[in-house]
Amino acid sequence: MVPSEEKVYLSYDSPIHRNLNGDHIDDVHPPEFLNTITTYGLPNHKLRLKVGVPVMLLRNIDTRYGLCKGTKLVITKMGRYAIEGRVIYKSNVGDQVFVSRLSISPLDVRIPFKFQ
């Protein structure tokens, strides 16, 4: 309902290879399958955002700058690999911050393989 253009961000899911000598593939799960996995602490494959929309951080990114779990931001600009926002709740209210693309792995022990 916010009158601004929507931008869609997609995850880039890939298996974590433990094989260091390269003689075999550790994981045969294709990215299309990895994109369907939803679990605690892992964002959905497709993230739709708009300028002016409030968002909340779901994990600690940089505690020195107040980018902690539960911090609420209003999106002010969206780039290809980063989002700019203004802090509206928790510490550092009013600060302009950047949230860049980052690599995360699910911590759910029910998933029998590792991916990022």
From TrEMBL:
One of its GO terms (molecular function) is helicase activity. Residues 32-77 form the DNA helicase Pif1-like 2B domain. It comes from the Eukaryota. Keywords: ATP-binding, Helicase, Hydrolase, Nucleotide-binding. It holds the Pfam family Pif1_2B_dom. This is PIF1-like helicase. It comes from Medicago truncatula. The lineage of its organism: Eukaryota, Viridiplantae, Streptophyta, Embryophyta, Tracheophyta.
